[in-house]
Amino acid sequence: AYTAKIGPSILSSDLSQLGRECERMMECGADYLHLDVMDGHFVPNITFGHPMVECLRKAVGPNPFFDMHMMVSRPEQWVKPMAAAGANQYTFHLEATTNPGNLIKEIRESGMKFCKVADKCPKSKANRSSYTRVGLAIKPGTTVEELAPWARQIDMALVMTVEPGFGGQRFMEDMMPKVNWLRSQFPSLDIEVDGGVGPDTIHRCAEAGANMIVSGSAVVSSSDPRSVIALLKDVVLE
Ligand code: DX5
Ligand code: ZN
């Protein structure tokens, strides 16, 4: 038996209606919202930055959990602006920084508000309202051994299951050993998967031990996102 939270990525939605799309995903049963920030440098695509996040926070109110996936070359630069904009968790890429330890500390001290999602996280019990969650992401070509030294200092490891940059790509099943290994080594760590995850692939992720599941196009491009989210939850709650 496994349980996991479902976080739609709104990257593939109608970007002119982003606030409405976020609300729609929450109404359809999303546990949290995965927000993909791309700078056109770390990845070959551009999405949005903290001004957009600030607007989204105003649009959706205080409760939806904003999981920021920072696909940017200088993750240090956006911690404070994202905190001010209303982010709840800040996930940076290991490949994008030379000093992960310092960045983890900066994020931890940034005062992002912890809310609802990932209530299993043991480190967060103490004081949720003033605890900032830190995520660390690795691209498909980065080994889990490179992430391991930081695992006890973070709340969530993000194992990418596509090359970051675009929605709608094919799920890389050969990333699952990374998830398995992390789960075996760090039982209380939140582990997120991102890229190509939908009704056909989610069981692989859950079996391997992922407990935060991002699903973009499979949910957002569906004519019936509510049913897709329900289906995804069904798989991870059995
Ligand atoms: C890829 C992004 C993902 C992506 C997921 O660079 O980080 O969050 O939008 O979308 P799907 O589920 O369509 O692969
Ligand atoms: Zn993402």
From TrEMBL:
Protein name according to UniProt: Ribulose-phosphate 3-epimerase
Alphabetical UniProt keywords: Carbohydrate metabolism, Cobalt, Isomerase, Manganese, Metal-binding, Zinc
List of catalytic residues: D36 (proton acceptor), D194 (proton donor)
Matching InterPro entries: Aldolase_TIM (IPR013785), Ribul_P_3_epim (IPR026019), Ribul_P_3_epim-like (IPR000056), RibuloseP-bd_barrel (IPR011060)
Coiled-coil zones: none
EC number: 5.1.3.1
Cofactor binding notes: Binds 1 divalent metal cation per subunit.
PANTHER family: RIBULOSE-5-PHOSPHATE-3-EPIMERASE
Enzyme category, top tier: isomerase
Entry binding sites for a divalent metal cation: H34, D36, H69, D194
Keyword presence, DNA-binding: no
Pfam families xref list: Ribul_P_3_epim
The protein's required cofactors: Zn(2+); Mn(2+); a divalent metal cation; Co(2+)
Catalytic activity: D-ribulose 5-phosphate = D-xylulose 5-phosphate
Entry's Gene Ontology BP terms: carbohydrate metabolic process; pentose-phosphate shunt
Record-level Gene Ontology MF annotations: D-ribulose-phosphate 3-epimerase activity; metal ion binding
Pathway: Carbohydrate degradation; pentose phosphate pathway; D-xylulose 5-phosphate from D-ribulose 5-phosphate (non-oxidative stage): step 1/1
Species of the source: Hemibagrus guttatus
Family named by the database record: Belongs to the ribulose-phosphate 3-epimerase family.
Residues where substrate binds: S9, H69, G165, F166, G167, G168, G196, G216, S217
